[in-house]
Amino acid sequence: MTDNHVSGMEASAVSVLKRAVELDQSGRFQDSLVCYQEGIQLLIDVLKALKDESKRGHYREKIKGYMDRAEQIKAQVNQMKEDGKYHEQIKIPEDATGFSYEALFKPYISSALSEVWVEDPYIRHTHQLYNFLRFCEMLLKLCSKVKRIHLLTSQDEQADKTQQSSALSELRDSLGGQGVTLDVQYSSTIHDREIRFDNGWIIKIGRGLDYFKKPQGRFSIGYCDYDLRRCQETSVDIFHTKHTKTL
């Protein structure tokens, strides 16, 4: 491994661990834990490549310190989950970027996740239907064991309902080809937005899945990559419960 490669890994580790500390200090423990784990692995890779024993000792100390903090956070989060007191809030500022569905939901998606409930009254119009499609794609990408997705939404009484029902029917067939069942139900009284995973995590986004701004054009940055798409200001509240919905 070249010196440049090692230096690149060192820089990446510093960046990730700096973000881990920032998230830790702001109380975003689950997000910080993911960054600590990623950063620690990068430092371990650097350690394996180093030959200088003094540097190796320095990195061993660093790794131990970060591992100890990661274990403390894990124990703290597990205790809060056990007590039913876990609550975390993420503020998404106006025009912020970096809040794609994958970036937002990844810390709460475990390998055992198999069932998801989405309650969002605004999965009606074209861009909202695409949002839901992207959310489903994110689930399939991050967790191969997802087998059932439930959607509770509303119908626009003043618009043609054909587009909504046709799009969701097409998505149902497409997910079925991936071994995933999509269950769609409608409610005329739904108002709250909530996403619930069967591993106990509950995510409530003030604007639901529709928190992205319209891109400036079809060939502008952020049109395809939602990490680069500007957001509308909203808040995200994350809870954990040992009791999840059942069919």
TrEMBL record:
Residues 6-84 form the MIT domain. It comes from the Eukaryota. InterPro entries: MIT_dom (IPR007330), MIT_dom_sf (IPR036181), MIT_domain_contain_protein1 (IPR052817), MITD1_C (IPR032341), MITD1_C_sf (IPR038113), MITD1_N (IPR045331). Transmembrane segments: none annotated. PANTHER family: MIT DOMAIN-CONTAINING PROTEIN 1 (PTHR21222:SF1). This is MIT domain-containing protein 1. The lineage of its organism: Eukaryota, Metazoa, Chordata, Craniata, Vertebrata.
